[in-house]
## 1
Amino acid sequence: MWECRVPDHPSTDRKSVGRKLSIGLIILIVLAVGAIPVIRSVTTSSDQANEPLPSTDPQQTTTINTYDRVLFAGDSITVGRDARELPKSFRELVEKKLSSGGTNSITTIAKSGAKLKYIAERKGLPSNVDLAIVELGTNDIRGRTPAQVFKREYQAYLKKIKASSPKVKLVCLGVWHDSKSKNTQALDRIIRESCLQNGGTYIQISDIFDQPANRGPAGAVTWKGKSDAFHPNNLGHQAIAKRLSRELGLQAK
Protein backbone atom coordinates (compact mmCIF):
# COMPACT_ATOMS: atom_id res chain seq x y z
CA MET A 1 0.00 0.00 0.00
CA TRP A 2 1.32 3.31 -1.02
CA GLU A 3 1.65 5.84 1.78
CA CYS A 4 1.66 9.44 0.75
CA ARG A 5 3.64 11.70 3.15
CA VAL A 6 3.77 15.45 2.97
CA PRO A 7 7.25 16.61 3.72
CA ASP A 8 7.67 19.01 6.68
CA HIS A 9 8.86 22.62 5.95
CA PRO A 10 10.12 23.96 9.25
CA SER A 11 11.67 27.10 7.73
CA THR A 12 8.38 28.06 6.13
CA ASP A 13 6.52 27.66 9.44
CA ARG A 14 9.04 29.84 11.23
CA LYS A 15 8.61 32.61 8.65
CA SER A 16 4.83 32.45 9.01
CA VAL A 17 5.03 32.69 12.77
CA GLY A 18 7.45 35.59 12.49
CA ARG A 19 5.13 37.46 10.17
CA LYS A 20 2.23 36.93 12.57
CA LEU A 21 4.29 38.20 15.49
CA SER A 22 5.37 41.26 13.52
CA ILE A 23 1.80 42.07 12.54
CA GLY A 24 0.63 41.63 16.13
CA LEU A 25 3.42 43.89 17.41
CA ILE A 26 2.50 46.60 14.88
CA ILE A 27 -1.14 46.42 15.95
CA LEU A 28 -0.17 46.80 19.61
CA ILE A 29 2.03 49.82 18.82
CA VAL A 30 -0.76 51.48 16.83
CA LEU A 31 -3.24 50.91 19.63
CA ALA A 32 -0.80 52.22 22.22
CA VAL A 33 -0.05 55.38 20.22
CA GLY A 34 -3.73 56.00 19.66
CA ALA A 35 -4.42 55.73 23.36
CA ILE A 36 -1.93 58.48 24.33
CA PRO A 37 -4.17 61.43 23.40
CA VAL A 38 -7.04 59.79 25.24
CA ILE A 39 -4.96 59.41 28.38
CA ARG A 40 -3.72 62.99 28.11
CA SER A 41 -7.26 64.24 27.60
CA VAL A 42 -8.54 62.48 30.67
CA THR A 43 -5.67 63.79 32.82
CA THR A 44 -6.19 67.36 31.66
CA SER A 45 -9.92 67.20 32.27
CA SER A 46 -9.34 65.79 35.73
CA ASP A 47 -6.85 68.54 36.59
CA GLN A 48 -9.21 71.27 35.41
CA ALA A 49 -12.10 69.78 37.35
CA ASN A 50 -10.11 70.03 40.57
CA GLU A 51 -9.28 73.73 40.07
CA PRO A 52 -11.68 76.30 41.61
CA LEU A 53 -13.55 78.31 39.02
CA PRO A 54 -12.79 82.05 39.03
CA SER A 55 -15.57 84.31 40.26
CA THR A 56 -17.29 86.40 37.62
CA ASP A 57 -19.14 88.58 40.11
CA PRO A 58 -17.20 91.82 40.79
CA GLN A 59 -19.39 92.48 43.82
CA GLN A 60 -17.71 89.55 45.58
CA THR A 61 -14.41 91.45 45.66
CA THR A 62 -14.02 93.47 48.85
CA THR A 63 -11.27 96.05 49.25
CA ILE A 64 -10.27 96.54 52.88
CA ASN A 65 -9.79 100.23 53.74
CA THR A 66 -8.33 102.21 56.63
CA TYR A 67 -11.21 104.67 57.00
CA ASP A 68 -12.94 103.72 60.24
CA ARG A 69 -14.79 107.03 60.60
CA VAL A 70 -15.98 108.98 57.54
CA LEU A 71 -17.60 112.38 56.98
CA PHE A 72 -19.60 113.50 53.93
CA ALA A 73 -20.25 117.26 53.77
CA GLY A 74 -22.19 118.73 50.87
CA ASP A 75 -25.31 120.08 49.24
CA SER A 76 -28.09 118.49 47.18
CA ILE A 77 -25.58 116.41 45.19
CA THR A 78 -24.45 114.73 48.42
CA VAL A 79 -28.07 114.43 49.57
CA GLY A 80 -28.61 112.34 46.44
CA ARG A 81 -30.91 114.62 44.49
CA ASP A 82 -32.22 113.22 41.17
CA ALA A 83 -30.85 109.71 41.55
CA ARG A 84 -33.92 107.63 40.72
CA GLU A 85 -33.53 105.73 43.98
CA LEU A 86 -31.42 106.87 46.95
CA PRO A 87 -29.14 103.77 46.83
CA LYS A 88 -28.12 104.90 43.33
CA SER A 89 -26.73 108.23 44.57
CA PHE A 90 -22.97 108.69 44.56
CA ARG A 91 -22.84 108.94 48.34
CA GLU A 92 -24.78 105.72 48.90
CA LEU A 93 -22.72 103.87 46.29
CA VAL A 94 -19.47 104.92 47.97
CA GLU A 95 -20.86 104.32 51.46
CA LYS A 96 -21.67 100.74 50.50
CA LYS A 97 -18.08 100.11 49.42
CA LEU A 98 -16.69 101.80 52.51
CA SER A 99 -18.90 99.78 54.85
CA SER A 100 -18.07 96.48 53.15
CA GLY A 101 -14.38 97.37 53.48
CA GLY A 102 -14.43 97.99 57.22
CA THR A 103 -15.76 101.52 57.83
CA ASN A 104 -17.79 101.60 61.05
CA SER A 105 -19.08 105.18 61.25
CA ILE A 106 -20.34 107.47 58.46
CA THR A 107 -21.65 110.96 59.20
CA THR A 108 -23.44 113.01 56.52
CA ILE A 109 -23.83 116.77 56.82
CA ALA A 110 -25.73 117.89 53.73
CA LYS A 111 -28.64 120.10 52.77
CA SER A 112 -30.22 120.84 49.41
CA GLY A 113 -29.61 124.43 48.33
CA ALA A 114 -26.97 125.03 50.99
CA LYS A 115 -24.01 127.27 50.37
CA LEU A 116 -20.65 126.54 51.94
CA LYS A 117 -21.18 129.08 54.74
CA TYR A 118 -24.40 127.43 55.92
CA ILE A 119 -22.78 124.00 56.27
CA ALA A 120 -19.61 125.43 57.83
CA GLU A 121 -21.27 127.61 60.45
CA ARG A 122 -24.50 125.84 61.36
CA LYS A 123 -23.53 122.19 61.36
CA GLY A 124 -21.30 120.59 63.97
CA LEU A 125 -18.43 118.31 63.01
CA PRO A 126 -17.64 114.81 64.27
CA SER A 127 -14.15 114.42 65.70
CA ASN A 128 -11.32 112.11 64.74
CA VAL A 129 -12.64 111.13 61.34
CA ASP A 130 -10.24 109.31 59.04
CA LEU A 131 -11.78 110.55 55.79
CA ALA A 132 -13.70 113.72 54.92
CA ILE A 133 -15.38 114.06 51.51
CA VAL A 134 -16.34 117.69 50.88
CA GLU A 135 -18.72 118.55 48.03
CA LEU A 136 -19.55 122.25 48.35
CA GLY A 137 -19.53 125.30 46.11
CA THR A 138 -22.21 124.56 43.53
CA ASN A 139 -24.78 126.76 45.26
CA ASP A 140 -22.19 129.47 45.76
CA ILE A 141 -21.98 129.75 41.97
CA ARG A 142 -25.73 129.88 41.66
CA GLY A 143 -25.94 132.28 44.61
CA ARG A 144 -23.10 134.42 43.23
CA THR A 145 -20.79 134.27 46.22
CA PRO A 146 -17.72 136.40 45.35
CA ALA A 147 -14.69 134.22 44.62
CA GLN A 148 -12.52 135.81 47.32
CA VAL A 149 -15.24 135.32 49.92
CA PHE A 150 -15.66 131.69 48.89
CA LYS A 151 -11.91 131.17 49.07
CA ARG A 152 -11.75 132.49 52.63
CA GLU A 153 -14.74 130.40 53.72
CA TYR A 154 -13.51 127.22 52.02
CA GLN A 155 -10.02 127.42 53.50
CA ALA A 156 -11.49 128.08 56.94
CA TYR A 157 -13.79 125.06 56.65
CA LEU A 158 -10.97 122.71 55.71
CA LYS A 159 -8.91 123.97 58.65
CA LYS A 160 -11.92 123.43 60.92
CA ILE A 161 -12.18 119.81 59.75
CA LYS A 162 -8.46 119.25 60.31
CA ALA A 163 -8.61 120.84 63.76
CA SER A 164 -11.18 118.25 64.89
CA SER A 165 -9.54 115.42 62.93
CA PRO A 166 -5.75 115.96 62.66
CA LYS A 167 -5.10 112.73 60.75
CA VAL A 168 -7.98 113.11 58.29
CA LYS A 169 -7.64 112.41 54.59
CA LEU A 170 -9.37 115.24 52.73
CA VAL A 171 -11.05 114.67 49.39
CA CYS A 172 -12.55 117.78 47.80
CA LEU A 173 -15.02 117.51 44.94
CA GLY A 174 -15.30 120.42 42.55
CA VAL A 175 -18.55 122.14 41.63
CA TRP A 176 -21.38 120.57 39.63
CA HIS A 177 -21.61 123.16 36.90
CA ASP A 178 -20.64 123.95 33.31
CA SER A 179 -16.86 123.50 33.08
CA LYS A 180 -16.57 126.28 30.49
CA SER A 181 -18.07 128.85 32.84
CA LYS A 182 -15.58 131.33 34.28
CA ASN A 183 -17.29 131.07 37.67
CA THR A 184 -16.91 127.29 37.60
CA GLN A 185 -13.24 127.55 36.70
CA ALA A 186 -12.62 130.14 39.42
CA LEU A 187 -14.25 128.11 42.20
CA ASP A 188 -12.76 124.83 41.01
CA ARG A 189 -9.33 126.48 41.13
CA ILE A 190 -9.96 127.68 44.69
CA ILE A 191 -11.17 124.24 45.78
CA ARG A 192 -8.21 122.51 44.18
CA GLU A 193 -5.57 124.86 45.60
CA SER A 194 -7.12 124.95 49.07
CA CYS A 195 -7.40 121.18 49.22
CA LEU A 196 -3.82 120.64 48.10
CA GLN A 197 -2.56 123.19 50.63
CA ASN A 198 -4.21 121.12 53.36
CA GLY A 199 -2.75 117.85 52.11
CA GLY A 200 -5.96 116.75 50.42
CA THR A 201 -6.97 115.53 46.98
CA TYR A 202 -9.11 117.39 44.46
CA ILE A 203 -11.57 115.62 42.15
CA GLN A 204 -13.14 117.48 39.25
CA ILE A 205 -16.80 116.72 38.46
CA SER A 206 -17.70 119.63 36.15
CA ASP A 207 -16.58 117.56 33.16
CA ILE A 208 -19.12 114.92 34.21
CA PHE A 209 -21.76 117.67 34.30
CA ASP A 210 -20.84 118.60 30.71
CA GLN A 211 -22.12 115.28 29.37
CA PRO A 212 -25.89 115.67 28.80
CA ALA A 213 -26.52 111.96 29.43
CA ASN A 214 -25.48 112.49 33.07
CA ARG A 215 -28.35 114.92 33.82
CA GLY A 216 -32.14 114.96 33.48
CA PRO A 217 -34.52 114.51 31.94
CA ALA A 218 -36.67 117.03 33.77
CA GLY A 219 -39.87 115.65 35.25
CA ALA A 220 -38.73 112.08 35.91
CA VAL A 221 -39.95 110.48 39.14
CA THR A 222 -37.18 110.11 41.74
CA TRP A 223 -37.00 109.24 45.44
CA LYS A 224 -36.91 113.01 46.13
CA GLY A 225 -39.72 114.14 43.84
CA LYS A 226 -39.56 115.21 40.20
CA SER A 227 -36.14 115.61 38.59
CA ASP A 228 -34.80 118.69 36.83
CA ALA A 229 -32.27 119.08 34.03
CA PHE A 230 -29.48 120.21 36.37
CA HIS A 231 -28.82 117.57 39.00
CA PRO A 232 -27.03 114.29 38.21
CA ASN A 233 -29.23 111.34 37.25
CA ASN A 234 -28.28 107.73 37.92
CA LEU A 235 -25.50 107.85 35.31
CA GLY A 236 -24.16 111.10 36.71
CA HIS A 237 -24.11 109.80 40.28
CA GLN A 238 -22.48 106.59 39.11
CA ALA A 239 -19.74 108.52 37.30
CA ILE A 240 -19.01 110.60 40.39
CA ALA A 241 -18.95 107.47 42.58
CA LYS A 242 -16.58 105.71 40.21
CA ARG A 243 -14.13 108.60 40.21
CA LEU A 244 -14.26 108.94 43.98
CA SER A 245 -13.94 105.19 44.54
CA ARG A 246 -10.86 105.09 42.35
CA GLU A 247 -9.22 107.83 44.39
CA LEU A 248 -10.03 106.01 47.64
CA GLY A 249 -8.78 102.67 46.34
CA LEU A 250 -12.23 101.11 46.60
CA GLN A 251 -12.42 99.80 43.04
CA ALA A 252 -12.75 96.02 42.65
CA LYS A 253 -9.38 94.49 41.74
Note: The chain has nine helices and seven strands.
## 2
Amino acid sequence: MPLDDPAEIRALEQAASRALERRIGGSVAYFQRDLRTDVIGFSDRFAQRHPKGWAAAKADWSELYPSMPIRVRADVRIDRLGMIQYSKARANAD
Protein backbone atom coordinates (compact mmCIF):
# COMPACT_ATOMS: atom_id res chain seq x y z
CA MET A 1 0.00 0.00 0.00
CA PRO A 2 1.69 3.24 -1.11
CA LEU A 3 1.13 5.62 1.79
CA ASP A 4 2.20 8.63 -0.26
CA ASP A 5 -0.98 8.31 -2.34
CA PRO A 6 -3.80 10.55 -0.99
CA ALA A 7 -6.43 8.06 -2.21
CA GLU A 8 -4.79 5.30 -0.16
CA ILE A 9 -4.72 7.55 2.91
CA ARG A 10 -8.44 8.33 2.47
CA ALA A 11 -9.23 4.63 2.13
CA LEU A 12 -7.24 3.90 5.29
CA GLU A 13 -9.03 6.70 7.16
CA GLN A 14 -12.42 5.34 6.08
CA ALA A 15 -11.52 1.79 7.07
CA ALA A 16 -10.27 2.97 10.46
CA SER A 17 -13.45 5.03 10.96
CA ARG A 18 -15.67 2.03 10.22
CA ALA A 19 -13.65 -0.24 12.52
CA LEU A 20 -13.81 2.31 15.33
CA GLU A 21 -17.56 2.75 14.87
CA ARG A 22 -18.07 -1.02 15.09
CA ARG A 23 -15.98 -1.36 18.25
CA ILE A 24 -17.56 1.59 20.03
CA GLY A 25 -21.04 0.59 18.85
CA GLY A 26 -20.51 -2.93 20.17
CA SER A 27 -19.38 -1.57 23.52
CA VAL A 28 -22.36 0.77 23.79
CA ALA A 29 -24.75 -2.07 22.92
CA TYR A 30 -23.12 -4.26 25.57
CA PHE A 31 -23.46 -1.52 28.20
CA GLN A 32 -27.09 -0.94 27.22
CA ARG A 33 -28.44 -4.43 26.76
CA ASP A 34 -26.25 -6.66 28.92
CA LEU A 35 -25.12 -4.43 31.76
CA ARG A 36 -28.05 -1.99 31.56
CA THR A 37 -25.64 0.65 32.81
CA ASP A 38 -25.16 4.18 31.48
CA VAL A 39 -21.37 4.25 31.90
CA ILE A 40 -20.94 6.82 29.14
CA GLY A 41 -23.22 9.35 30.81
CA PHE A 42 -26.00 9.77 28.28
CA SER A 43 -28.35 10.73 31.12
CA ASP A 44 -26.06 13.60 32.15
CA ARG A 45 -25.91 14.91 28.59
CA PHE A 46 -29.68 14.54 28.20
CA ALA A 47 -30.26 16.43 31.47
CA GLN A 48 -27.94 19.25 30.37
CA ARG A 49 -29.38 19.69 26.88
CA HIS A 50 -33.05 18.97 27.58
CA PRO A 51 -33.84 19.68 31.26
CA LYS A 52 -37.61 19.47 30.80
CA GLY A 53 -37.37 16.25 28.82
CA TRP A 54 -35.02 14.81 31.44
CA ALA A 55 -37.45 15.70 34.24
CA ALA A 56 -40.10 13.64 32.46
CA ALA A 57 -37.78 10.73 31.60
CA LYS A 58 -35.70 10.52 34.78
CA ALA A 59 -38.04 8.19 36.69
CA ASP A 60 -38.14 5.73 33.77
CA TRP A 61 -34.50 6.03 32.69
CA SER A 62 -33.60 2.47 33.70
CA GLU A 63 -36.30 1.24 31.31
CA LEU A 64 -35.71 3.79 28.53
CA TYR A 65 -31.92 3.59 28.33
CA PRO A 66 -31.54 -0.09 27.29
CA SER A 67 -33.83 0.38 24.27
CA MET A 68 -32.62 3.82 23.15
CA PRO A 69 -31.27 3.89 19.60
CA ILE A 70 -27.69 5.18 19.71
CA ARG A 71 -25.75 5.97 16.56
CA VAL A 72 -21.96 6.00 16.70
CA ARG A 73 -20.04 8.06 14.14
CA ALA A 74 -16.27 8.24 13.87
CA ASP A 75 -14.16 10.38 11.57
CA VAL A 76 -10.53 9.28 11.62
CA ARG A 77 -8.02 11.64 10.03
CA ILE A 78 -4.36 10.86 9.46
CA ASP A 79 -2.38 14.07 9.83
CA ARG A 80 1.08 12.72 9.23
CA LEU A 81 2.91 9.47 8.67
CA GLY A 82 5.97 8.19 10.45
CA MET A 83 7.48 5.42 12.46
CA ILE A 84 7.40 4.80 16.17
CA GLN A 85 10.98 4.63 17.32
CA TYR A 86 10.44 3.36 20.84
CA SER A 87 8.33 0.54 22.14
CA LYS A 88 6.01 1.02 25.09
CA ALA A 89 8.25 -1.18 27.21
CA ARG A 90 11.26 0.96 26.43
CA ALA A 91 9.30 4.18 27.02
CA ASN A 92 8.21 2.92 30.45
CA ALA A 93 11.82 2.04 31.32
CA ASP A 94 13.03 5.60 30.56
Note: The helical segments are 6-35, 42-49, 51-57, 61-64, 88-93.
